[in-house]
Amino acid sequence: MGVAAAALIVAPAAGAAPVAVAAADPVTVFETSFEDGETAPFGARGPVTLDVTTDDARTGTRSLRVSDRADGWQSVSLDLLAAPLSLEPGEYDISAWVKLDTGTPEDSTGFNFTVQQAPYATGEEQYLTVGQYQKPVSGDEWVEIGGTYVLTEGRTEAQLYVDVVSLAGAHPSFLIDDIRILGDAPADGGETPGDGEGPGDGDGETPGDGESPAPGPIVTIHETGFETGTDGWFGRGDAQVSVTDTEAYEGAQSLSVTGRTANWHGPAMNLFPLVNRGDTYEISAWVKLPEGTEGSTDIKFTVAQQPEAYVQVNEQVAVTADSWVFLSGTYEVP
Ligand SMILES: [Ca+2]
Predict the structure, then answer these.
(1) Gap between the Cα atoms of 163 and 73, Å rounded
(2) Ligand 1 center to 38 CA (angstroms)
(3) Measured in angstroms, how far is the CA atom of residue 144 from the centroid of ligand 1?
(4) Which CATH superfamily groups domain 4-21+217-332?
(5) How much distance in Å is there from the Cα of 228 to the middle of ligand 1?
(6) Tens digit of pLDDT for each residue in 276-334?
(7) Which 3 state secondary structure label does DSSP give 177?
(8) What spacing in Å lies between the alpha carbon of 292 and ligand 1's midpoint?
(9) How many other C-beta atoms lie within 10 A of the C-beta of residue 184?
């Protein structure tokens, strides 16, 4: 038996009842195209060499080269909590353009942004993928990586870096250019650091100051139509998840869930890094049984908490293979 889903989790930022409030346009909180020749504020992650090169550039005449790498995590990093960024908790859109260094064989390998953040659970570190996981990148053309990152309250560490899969057992040099971080306008209408030569220049002005802090606008903390992958969803119990283009509610793909041998085996994702204590979240998805499946089954969302408790998010809904059914409920984090 399988279930196909498109999932959406929506959070009012201040735990209030959902209200329709238009979010302010995002502003550029950081941007660089390396045209000033400076590697700062980027740092080396591991014993790598960083240098600004004129060999290749996505825009302008310069980009940042990361070389002398000996492992996938050895890369370029950016401290999101330190100056000049000093990001406040909130939702950010992080993007950059990357390619393998000139002269690298035509093969491609996987790139993605990761944030190493702490504390997580009992104070351990956590590695959170930002955007598409292991996006194919070669030496032929510039490829954009990145996506949405939610900085939650109480983090003492948040290091953004580029993760690169090994290529034929080696760790190729790569180039990065046009890094941009969009976020909400700071309350004091702060300035934009960086050299401001990127392609997004001009849309980074601070709109009206003095937005009221509470209740906050409704923000989406996770949304996927599984168009580019499983997006952090995994199989619980014996369940296995994969993307399929056989059926879709919207777009071309959905998540296929197979191999289930018990009621609690299903698709799951880790909410912990995304949610805040005391806030209430709306969780919804469209589900159906795979085409050709006989009969119906009851489906609902459950949140598994620690200490162990299972919180039902919505009344269970009868689902068949005939049509997509909307599941929706709310969950308050204790
Ligand atoms: Ca540049």
Answers:
(1) 5
(2) 11
(3) 14
(4) Galactose-binding domain-like (2.60.120.260)
(5) 27
(6) 877 888 888 889 999 999 988 888 898 888 777 788 887 788 889 988 888 888 888 88
(7) strand
(8) 53
(9) 20
